[in-house]
Amino acid sequence: MINSGDTAWMLVATALVMVMTPGLGLFYGGMVRSKNVLGTMMQSFMCLGIVSVMWVVYGYSLAFGPDIGGFIGSLAWAGFNGVGMDPGPYSAKIPHILFSSFQLMFAIITPALITGAFAERMKFSAFILFTLLWSTMVYLPVCHWVWGGGWLGKLGALDFAGGTVIHINSGVAALAAALFMGKRKGYRQEPFYPNNLTMTMLGAALLWFGWFGFNAGSALAANGVASLAFFTTQIATATAAMSWILFEKIVRGRPTSLGFASGAVAGLVAITPAAGFVTPLPAVVIGFVAGMICYFAILAKGKLGYDDSLDVVGVHGVGGLWGALATGLFASIGGAGLFYGNPRQLMVQLVASLTTIAFSFIMTSIILVALKKTIGLRADEEEEMQGLDLSMHGETGYYL
Fold first, then answer.
1. What end-to-end distance do the CA atoms of the chain give, in Å?
2. pLDDT, tens digit, for every residue of 307-349?
3. Which pLDDT value is given to residue 148?
4. Separation of alpha carbons 294 and 304, rounded Å
């Protein structure tokens, strides 16, 4: 039953998604101050370690195992019991262990996205526990609701590659983290310059490259839907990057490299839930709106007064929400949205989005409060002023 072509493609797609997490480390690492570059990158790399082990022990089983009440999977596949080289319940043409490997890469990058919100100020020990607890208590349930046979999937929610499960989920968690962590020392009192925008551009390129595996791979086959998702990903991303720098030019007078990179990521985020459900022209609309609204969401951050260090809320939260709702508007393949005669789909997308927002914010807040009252969340003032590279890891990214 296993199809060698589909299997080969999914092996490549899985590797592409894995590259996104180090790419995210470069993207984030270039935007922080030089004294925090390694500590910031380390958080993305640590997610590769923490979540991989958790996934084998119990994570995959809770996310995709036999359904319990529409809320969570059972522990029937704990320790990868029964997850082997034969096809599984989610694809008849690729090995079960390959499907689980592909989904592992999604589970890894989601908590890594959140780290941009508390960059430069969370203790390393708190980060490790936060990643483990958040992945277990927030990511696994939401993943099961949408993709693992849970209640949102049964309701009809469309999320091709993770707009709700990954981007809304992580964006809302990032907002909670920014609020609970408080502002960085010296925030808006001294300039916080990115240490290496060349590194950030390289990270954006790796994210864009890896995202083809992220979206096209979610077809779980080398077929027409994968081809569609591949193309809509490119079109929406390019349009969003151009949209962002257009509005940046209008508002601030100059388009920037960071603006192009941020706009591209906003487009990638927004097209993710819709990639295999929409045709190219709606992808252009989705990308254009994403670049515009995410840019203005970031401008609004200053007025709202919270310190989301690397704009996770504005890009992933706002972009993911727009993408989820846009799927309810423009879906025409494998489902129908409002503009194709099915207004119910937009309502389902709204329910899925609002439920994820509420659940993620509440559960993330509980985790942060628990950590704050036990081991503490923030580096102390001296450690933060010194920089987390030296204070947490005893090394520095740049020796002058």
1. 58
2. 999 999 999 999 999 999 999 999 999 999 999 999 999 999 9
3. 97
4. 15
Distance in angstroms (rounded) separating the CA atoms of residues 112 and 105: 11
Q: Which amino acid is at 81?
A: N
Give me 364's structure tokens.
């993330």
Domain ranges in the chain are 4-393
**Helical packing angle, 224-252 and 257-271, nearest 10°:** 140
* Cross-strand partners of 82: none
The tokens of 371 are what? 């950590």
- Candidates 320, 349, 327; CA nearest to 173 is 320
CB of 150 closer than 8 Å to CB of 70? yes
Residue 294 contacts residue 316 (beta carbons within 8 Å)? no
| DSSP secondary structure, 232-246, as one string | HHHHHHHHHHHHHHH
Q: pLDDT (tens digit, 9 = 90+) per residue, 277-291?
A: 999 999 999 999 999
Contacts of 190 (CB under 8 A, 6+ apart): none
Percent over 90 (pLDDT), the chain: 98
C-alpha span between 373 and 298 (Å, rounded): 31
Closest CA to 241 of 257, 225, 217, 226: 257
Measured CA distances, 290 to 115, 139, 242, 262, 317 (Å): 22, 24, 11, 11, 11
Assess whether pLDDT exceeds 90 at residue 188: no
Tell me the fold of 4-393. Answer: Ammonium transporter fold (1.10.3430)
CA distance 285 to 91: 32
Q: How far apart are CA 347 and CA 158, in angstroms?
A: 11
- CA-based torsion, 209, 215, 219, 220: positive or negative: positive
Q: Which of 189, 121, 184 has its CA nearest to residue 391?
A: 121
Instruction: Give the CA radius of gyration of the chain.
Output: 20
* Residues 109/39, Cβ–Cβ less than 8 Å: no
In Å, how far from its chain's centre is CA 238? 19
Distance (Å, whole) CA 332 – CA 312:
30
CA angle 380, 394, 52 (to 5 degrees): 90
DSSP 73: E
Q: d(Cα 269, Cα 27) in Å, to the nearest integer?
A: 15
Helix axes 4-29, 197-216, angle to 10 degrees: 160
The pTM score is 0.97
